[in-house]
Amino acid sequence: MNDLEQHMASLADCARPFSPLPRDCPACGSRQTAAFRPRRAPPPAQIATVRCARCALVFVDPVPSEAMQGESYGADYYEPWQGRQERSRIRLWKRRLALIEARSPRGALLDIGCGDGLFLKIARAAGWNVEGVEFSPEGARRASQRLGRPVAVGDLAHEDLLKGPFDVLTLWHVLEHLAEPAPMLDAARVRLRPGGLLVVAVPNLDNLPMQIAYRLARGRRLPLYEKGAREPHLSHFSPSVLAAFLERRGYENLEIRADRCALAPAKRAIDAGAAVLSTLARRLLTDAMVAFARRPR
Question: Is the separation of the CB atoms in 133 and 114 below 8 Å?
Fold first, then answer.
């Protein structure tokens, strides 16, 4: 067994042993939870989404083993990115990089969950010194090809990789896929320079316009978890929950704003309307959000 096979086997081992007992909240450790959405079948026939009574995080319980397998992010997952979505994704990454550059001078940037490396390539072309790490071997292979140099494969929260220090560390839609997001935020903090910038983008649980549009189009509520989903989400954050979570993990100077990341025209239109409603309601209602926070000096 080579090093990569051993690494993937160890990740699979971590994902297997699930207790029938309710798990602790992955954000604050509380054991007090209540069903967020009623079950349609008695346990254990269906995975439940529950809300923490202490910090209000909504999360999947128990964690389904298929959600933690690296092979879920194989070649089929990445193919659309290199096709019709490529130009839209380039524009998206340039917009996101502009938000970072408005808050930090160019320096060393680490992208956790770097996918196929497109963001890293764009940032490097803009003058950043970039590094990436990817859980999926297929994603790391593609990122390495794009950058012309190796990209680390692994779990930064549990492995001795890429110690830094970095001026900026990005987590673009990573936390929602993790069974335990707190260790990842801790690993990010120790790799940032004092005063360094953390960027975290996640879906917004308060995305009411998207929920309404989904119900009108599909005749059912927007699911928080579906078996076999292309991108299973294990934790669900509202803006206030995300802000409190980051503060508990030792970050400060928080700013949360819309992450306008939809690529499909219909979703872009819905999200544009949600942005207008957010201004009127003084409440973030877009489908996704991005938080900027600092490691204390």
Answer: yes
| Within a domain: 25 | no
pLDDT tens sequence across 232-241: 899 999 999 9
Instruction: Please indicate, yes or no, if residue 95 is contained in any of the structural domains.
Output: yes
> Which of 102, 116, 107, 120 is closest to 192 using CA atoms?
107
CA–CA gap between residue 256 and residue 271 (Å, rounded): 16
- DSSP, collapsed to helix, strand or coil, labels residue 224 as coil
Tens of pLDDT, residue by residue over 65-95, are: 776 665 556 656 666 656 677 888 999 999 9
For residue 108, the cross-strand partners are: 129
**Residue that has been written with the tokens 């007090």 in this structure:** 32
Q: How many domains does the chain have?
A: 1
Is the distance from CB of 12 to CB of 72 less than 8 angstroms? Answer: no
Distance CA 52, CA 264 (A): 33
Instruction: Give the domain range for residue 169.
Output: 84-294
Cβ-in-10-Å burial (0-12, 13-18, 19+) of 263 comes to: middle
Which residues, at least 6 apart from 39, have a Cβ–Cβ distance to it below 8 Å? 46, 48
Give the confidence band of 47 by pLDDT, cuts at 50, 70, 90.
confident
Q: Which residues contact 248 (CB under 8 A, 6 or more apart)?
A: 27, 28
Binned at pLDDT 50, 70 and 90, residue 246 comes out as: very high
Query: What's the CATH code of the domain at 267?
Result: 3.40.50.150
pLDDT grade, residue 165 (50/70/90)? very high
